[in-house]
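Hi L.,

As promised, L-ascorbate peroxidase:
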Amino acid sequence: MASTTSTVVSLVCSTTSSYPPATVKSSATVHFRANSLPATDAAASSGKDQILGRRGLVFTLTAALPLLLPFSKCMEAATAAVESETNGYEVIKEEIRKVVSKGKAAAVLRLVFHDAGTFQLDDHSGGMNGSVIYELDRPENKGLKTPFKILEKAKSEVDAVKQVSWADMIAVAGAEAVSICGGPTIQVAMGRLDSKEPDPEGKLPEETLDASGLKQSFQTKGLSTQELVALSGAHTLGNKGFGNPTVFDNSYFKVLLEESVSSGSMSSMTGLPSDRALAKDDECLRWIKKYADDQNSFFEDFEKAYVKLVNSGARWKRL
Ligand code: HEM
């Protein structure tokens, strides 16, 4: 039975130049496709067409060879880059998981906010640049030497294989801390550069701010009210009275809601003043209700806001 085979070879070789770079999954695309024409199309073709078809194909491939060769080299390089990035990411995750237990996850996640949360959109100062390692003696960073030391050990192991910046290390560590405690799996982009000096002081929100002060503070970092509420859900970890201290779930929102509904105001024993302030604000309360009712939507929004947070003010290595 006559058959005609048309081979379509499609090569797409792309490396990203936009910043932040796409996550490892999508930083390069390589497609090979071999399509067989359906039998009905094959039967409709004459023998001559088939010969011309094959000759045409050989001719096309020969003519395209000089083009295909550089493409194939480019494809090899892109594949190697993706593999190397993937391996690099895996090494970092592996070393982090060796040192970050559930009990240490809260402090590690807090370290992320204290590095990234200095970002100021107007002058592009601060942000996720590893500068928190120079700021550990500031009063607002009390207690963060412990997670720093834990990660320092993991970082030296990673550096022995492939150099990693503090900013990348902290960004991945926070994501792993969330996941270790049962929260969403978050993949962050790699390639942040470290600052060589501390960020300007006084840029993190004070815990005594009311809701409008918190919203304003987050706005200066390019973060919305919804992102403020979702990210504050990180306080579900730790000992502030929001369920199990080592489980990342939506109990932060459930407790905020229950306490503010049952007594009209929250017990001063639960949460920080800033947590209680969110529950008194109508706009924040709408998000609190949504996340208390629907853990998946909290996880989805937390993941997006977390990725935005760890990209705030980051400067990226060029590929
Ligand atoms: C909304 C503004 C925020 C304020 C005012 C604030 C302030 C604080 C304060 C005062 C503590 C207690 C530290 C201690 O126990 O001594 C704390 C704990 C914590 N914060 Fe925040 N925070 C805020 C947002 C965030 C964000 C956005 C994250 C991460 C995405 C975060 C993560 C954490 C975690 C995980 C803890 C528990 C740390 C532990 O138990 O070791 N915070 N925060």
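Confidence is low (pLDDT under 50) at residues 1-18, 24-55.

Thanks again for sending the construct details.

K.
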